[in-house]
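Why this split exists: single-chain examples teach little about how molecules sit against one another. For that reason, every record in the complexes split bundles all components of an assembly together and asks for one structure covering all of them. Below is a record exactly as it appears in the raw files.
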Amino acid sequence: MTYCINNHNYIPFKLSAVRVGLGDVISMSKVKLAEPLSIAGSLLELRGVTLAYADAGRRVVAAEDISLDVAQSDRIVLLGPSGCGKSTLLKAVGGFITPETGTIRLAGRPVTEPSPDGMMVFQEFDQLLPWKTVLGNVMFPMVASRRFGREAARERAQDTIRRVGLEKFAGAYPHTLSGGMKQRVAIARALALEPKMLLMDEPFGALDALTRRRMQHELLSLWQELRFTLVFVTHGIEEAIIVGSRVFVMTSHPGSILAEFDVREFGDHSRADPAFARLAGEIEDMLLERSQRGPDYVI
Amino acid sequence: MSSDWLHSVAVRRTLVILLLAAAWEGYGRFLGDPLLFPSLSQTVTALLDSTRTGELPSRLLNSLGTLGMGYAAGVAIATVLTTFAISTRFGADFLTMLTAMFSPLPAVALLPMAILWFGIGQPAIVFVIMFSVLWALALNAQSGFRGVSPALRMTGYNLSLTGWRHVVHILIPAAFPSILAGLKIGWAFAWRTLIAAELVFGASSRSGGLGWFISEHRNELAIDQVFAGMLVVILVGLLVEIGIFRTVERFTVIRWGMQR
């Protein structure tokens, strides 16, 4: 494997498909990073990752031999029924869990522990610090990680809070906010730090259907503006197709990737698109068929 | 007719206090025996008298000083034990076992032994107060730390907060409602224990506390002074509970929505 450094943001490129000399390295740095699926950049790289844990002395495999690449500004969705290991896989990407075998590399460096490079957004509303205001919550990662000074953090936090439309609530404490607003704060808190990637674990799972749709739309608008790299876990098929640029369908026993779909053409606008419904149906059939084969499993 | 003023908490509470005061005064006058039950006015007169002579304030200060020492010692040891408990599994088992054993034991029950160990005097009382605060606080703080939500913990780790920075930025604020509850219960235990211990023996070299004040005047049959002493015990209790703890709660856990 060969790496070279992009001058702008120090993303090592994997050049598996191209044989390169020194001259090519320079030309490669001009590859458009925002283009997912390109052979050029791979920000996040999983190779043969197996995740297992001991439960009452028994070895339980949560995910087996998973390999995938995520390019800069890609939007990856891990889709599957509960128990398929998608959340565990996300936590491993975030450095919370160490793989039994295989490697996880972020920007070329092995992920060994949690870091602000991969900011998590959880489903639980209590991920916000109840003792800090909205502004305090968004500032907290920037100050606590010592990446920004207090004043710079305040300015960035105010800017990000404005982006998620909560500027009127900057001084409010989390317990006074609705579920959707709390999740917006969590997203703002993660984005304000400009992490290398945003890791979302069923972030809209506890919201009502209307709020969830609005949040999906807002997440996509934020992506249009900021082009962050996203790894998104969900069990909602439609949500996966709308939010993602690529969807990895996962199955359980053990957790592994069943299929990969390129869904860049679908977005928030395509809910009524027949092709969208066809794809959703196809994925649903695939998951149902799989689940019927395993008698101990129900979606 | 609507009576809006009855809906104000302050007005209602004042009304309750006035009713109680009137009942006390009325019953005292009806009985007419200041040796058994002095009226409110007699008690207040005695209170003012012993305040003027400086006896009651010096007794009160003495008690508060003893309490402060015992309370501080209890908080310090509870902090050490809880730190040990949240950082190691053995520490957790150790503290769980100790609190299970010692929290049902009234601290005053240790007084006879404390007198043997430390002699009659302030150190013995400081010891039992320390004991009464320690378990209440340690028990509450430990359960508070245990109850910190996984999402909040992970949020801390996500920012590479480890060790003491994780404790200071995440665990202590998240467990603060329980810690504050522990401090409050510890204070109530300590105050009761102090007065009870001082009643048993309060004075060494002529400097005693409030409990001693009560006991001394009972022996002199100055019952109005006994009542004055008890009134001060109640007033200090109310003042700390409402003046200090409620105020802290209002600006912290209630504002944060962690407690209603």
